[in-house]
Amino acid sequence: MAALRFDRYYRYADITRFLKQFSQQRPDIFRYESIGKSYEGRDIWLCTITRFKTGPDTEKPAMWVDGNIHASEVSASSACLYLIHKLLTEDPKNEGIRSLLDTRVFYVCPRLNPDGAEWALADKPKIIRSSTRPWPYDEDPIEGLIREDMDGDGRMLQMRIPDPNGSWKPHPDHPKLLVPRAPDETGGTYYRLLPEGRIENYDGFLIPMARTKEGLDLNRNYPIGWRLEGEQHGAGPFPTSEPEIRAQVDFICKHPNITGAVCFHTFSGVLLRPPSRFAEDELPAEDVWNYKTIGAKGTEITGYPAISVYHEFRYHPKEIITGVFDDWMYEHRGVHAWTVEIWSPQRQAGIGEYKYIDWYREHPVEDDVKMLEWSEKVLKGKGYIEWYPYEHPQLGKVELGGWDVAYCWRNPPPHMLEKEIAPFADWLMFHLRIAPKLEIISSSAKAIGQGAYRVELVLQNTGWLPTYVTKKALNNKLSRPIVTEIELPRGATLETGKLREEHAQLEGRCYRGAAGVWSADSTDDRLRLVWTIRAPRGGTVKITARHERAGTVRSTLRLQ
Q: Which DSSP symbol is given to 209?
């Protein structure tokens, strides 16, 4: 197997090389293809992982997994690659993986935004939110602070400038650590804190932050609740306007066998479930219950809390985000979709319960001390950098230092990467394993006299989820019912039944309850079909039953 390691972050050419090697080494279970081109013309790779000899991928329940829609969130790609590597390497010896790939399929897009990641991983990195396409204007900024590695050491740190009106002061016991100045505090040493960078057209007084030329956020470009730039920054000119999102949406819509989805991001160390735009009590209760069950398993496996975006992960209590992937997958495709925010530096530092977004607005100073101690002990001082003098071309004498955000906040430090991402593969396999799955539990063709036969087929959904997956899908008719077709031998006629027919959806085991007090375990997970045909002896009858999400099954019966 290709020498893929998980103590480093790979650039686009490396990922392409690995995928090519995988396809050569395991063509029985791995294929990859381009589903479109990025803004800069790179192929967007999509990996299909299933045992192809047991049937085409489109006839099996599927799970969508992607990463790195945001430019600098490169550990998201690592999580996708880890899943691929685990499936390919453990398939021969792991019965659970073997049976999963026999009956189901993963669609994995390791790097949805290859352009932005290339900028983030360049020798001289440039950090942007998402796409490299200019938006909403294509002019370069002509004034303000532009974040940049000024001293050429490969890091973009912080600059501190002595300022009597500064908001920051040294911690009394840890002087290199800057902490907020009290609202009524005076008479001390204070600093103004800025990102490391150069200032265009500096007038000696004002330092505005320059507008980022590349202002798109690809995770606001989906066709769900989409809003204009004035209402939702970075959303683009229209839904799916960006080639990366258009390619993804097109592929997903052409693959109705997708029964669930996870998109990897960074950071906060949480499993996020939709909706983002309104309270979850507006969702069907059954979908919320199932979301919580799936999330609880994710917490058990990964240690990450499973929380609601709207209720627990809002950037501002009076604002919402729209046009995001997991909302679109749930509301328009009718499947359980998650956003995973990899990595929590706070949790690594021993900070227990904290409010994920609110923490950046307000938290106790003791948390900052814990973070500094974690950097000193675990990261050997590479997380929080001792301040050092630098002669800035516009500001003169400043100091560079503080948090190296790229090293230990935005993604796990490389030596901590594998431990952080490894558990997700097991949760993703669990998520796919509970998908609906059509199976034949009985089929027969019995002679009933005078050249007539009674043909019978009994189907069952053996998955935990119903064939329609969510009540949202059922209510909005997002999933076609089961379709059966019978093919008769030459010279045969159909007396009762239909050549092609739609049938009801089949339930799964997810609504059975836990107490067992009033249980009535009905067979609403089964479907029995009967045809009467008149045909010459010795012919064969072929029956196909298919469901977009639960797969396709076939039976061939000999007329005796």
A: B
The answer for 486, left when phi > 0, alpha when psi is -120 to 50, beta otherwise, is beta
Model confidence pLDDT, tens digit, residues 164-205: 999 999 999 999 999 999 999 999 999 999 999 999 999 999
Which among 304, 225, 310, 208 is positioned nearest to 264, based on CA atoms?
A: 304
Q: What pLDDT, on the 0 to 100 scale, is given for residue 1? A: 66
Rounded Cα distance, 366 and 358, in Å: 16
Mean pLDDT, the chain, as a whole number?
96
Cα 342 from Cα 414, distance rounded (Å)? 13
pLDDT in tens, 523-549: 999 999 999 999 999 999 999 999 999
The two tokens of residue 555 are 């039976």
Q: Are β-strands 306-308 and 270-273 bridged in parallel, bridged antiparallel, or unpaired? A: parallel
For residue range 274-291, what is the model confidence (pLDDT) as tens digits?
999 999 999 999 999 999
Q: Which residue has the tokens 């796919």?
A: 432
Q: What does the alpha-carbon distance between residue 13 and residue 10 come to, in Å, rounded to a whole number?
A: 8
Q: How far is the CA of 189 from the CAs of 163, 179, 314, 396, in angstroms?
A: 8, 12, 34, 19
What is the residue whose two structure tokens read 């306007």?
241
Nearest one of 81, 76, 102 to 91, comparing CA atoms = 102
Torsion angle defined by CA atoms of residues 231, 232, 233 and 234, in that order, rounded to the nearest 10 degrees:
-140
| Token output for 288 | 């919320």
- Residue 63 CA to residue 425 CA, distance in Å, equals 12
d(CA 207, CA 193): 11
- Is the CA virtual torsion 363, 364, 368, 373 positive or negative? negative
Q: Please, is 335 exposed, middle or buried when counting C-beta atoms within 10 Å of its C-beta (0-12, 13-18, 19+)? A: buried
Nearest to residue 427, comparing CAs of 295, 320, 525?
Answer: 295
What percentage of the chain exceeds 70 in pLDDT?
Answer: 100
Task: Give the length of the chain.
Answer: 560
Distance CA 402, CA 170 (A): 12
Among candidate residues 279, 226, 274, the one with its CA nearest the CA of residue 249: 226
Measured CA to CA in angstroms, residue 48 lies from 31, 57, 255, 423 at distances of 5, 8, 12, 21
Amino acid at 430: F
d(CA 528, CA 457): 6
Split at pLDDT 50, 70, 90, the class of 351 is very high
Q: What is the separation, in whole angstroms, between the first and last Cα of the chain?
A: 50
- Report the pLDDT value the prediction gives residue 521, as an integer from 0 to 100: 85
CA distance linking residue 278 with residue 274, whole number of Å: 9
What is the pTM assigned to this prediction? 0.96
- Cβ distance 112 to 68 under 8 Å? yes
